[in-house]
Bifunctional protein HldE
Amino acid sequence: MNSNLSLINTWKSLTILVIGDVILDCYLNGNADRLCREAPVPIVAVEQCQEFPGGAANTAANVANMGAEVLMLSVIGADIAGDRLKYVLKQRGVNPQHLITDTDRSTLAKQRVVADSQLLVRFDQGSTEAISTDTEQQLIQNLTQLFVQCDAIIISDYNYGILTPAVIQTLSELQSKYPRVLVIDSKNLKTYRSLKPTAVKPNYAETTQLLKLPKQSSQRAEQILPYGDHLLSLTGAEMVAVTLDYEGALLFERNQSPCRTTARPAPQNQTSGAGDTYISTLALALAAGAPAHTAALLAAAATAVVVQQPGTTTCRFEQLHQFLNGSDKLLTDASDLAAKIQRHRAMGDRIVFTNGCFDILHPGHATYLAQAKALGSILIVGVNSDESVRRLKGPERPVNPLADRLTILAALESVDYVVPFADSTPHDLIRIICPDIYVKGGDYTREMLPEADLVESLGGVVEILPFVGDRSTTRIIRQICAIYR
């Protein structure tokens, strides 16, 4: 991960041009505990109104929050929504000076009504027809001036009239004359084939439309996997990143084997704008010189951060840094742990808990933890402190100090959180977590577990996983000692 941390530190020196359809996203949040007299519909008592930059504006906000300088080029109306959009962009570090105001257009706005975390309805308004000839010429003039100032270009095309054929032709000419990293997110990717983009990012629905395939509710990756070369040909891109929601993403690159990244499950109402985060991070990584696979991994990491947040949100540089460093997985405060558990319960997650010393991590541990994670949605690992390990294993243990053991466990994809504890047994942790499933390895029986009665009294179940033979920390230590005798 250190090389990735070094890479994202270079993003502050980059300038990224974002061009596309900007949207004002609004969320009216409240509660609904009664029905309207006029019709059988819920009455929402609005308690909070939140506004976010959406569409290409959210892409620009993500770039800015990642530390790079961003140039935002688009068109808005001379209206309240346009003023509000400029305000929320400024709040997120994006200068709106290159937004062209057209008095004949209405700013795109999407208003969502949410009651008790449930999206009830969305209202869309704003101009979606192609921009006028005069506005188009002004946009092209600004594009020509800004293009040479940037290290990469992100096209965020929602098919709302900004990316006209003349604008695309200008992009093609500029890209031919001044080649840049060019990353495209569009509902009409074939339109950009002549630009020979660096990367394109269709979602699952757009991919099936491109390939003329039926949509599936599961095994989407398996369905798309055979069509990598065809997607590269259809889009003219050097790489295609197909985002698959909860199934992660597939990356296809010319003359390379496809690779797949995973995703953290999240409620549907928290995934709005996740694609903007993905493409922003992908573009930044590629502009910084990262290989495609690394760029895709960083994009997946940033998306994993943002889908844990409600609303249309951005991933900040500090959040991505913490995620890559594994520190977002380390919980040392009981109140933080309780808050995390409460949040996952509200999302309907099935929580799995296990504990141990994990002194020298070996394949047996990795297999065991992967099997434990498969039993639920969230895997929490309790880790014995150095003093408690000494009480359990003897004065010469642990070999690795607690900080190292926590760091290594946090780096595993199967592990969602690591929690240190000082007692010989994790009873206090179990009372806070109330796990749905408590897991131990096959070298234990239920009768050997002092935690079993507590877990079951709290409504959980105890699972004993198969023992991974010929793998143990003690055995590894003996082998090392034998070598140096």
Summary: The chain has a mean pLDDT of 89. The CA atoms of residues 359 and 400 lie 6 Å apart.
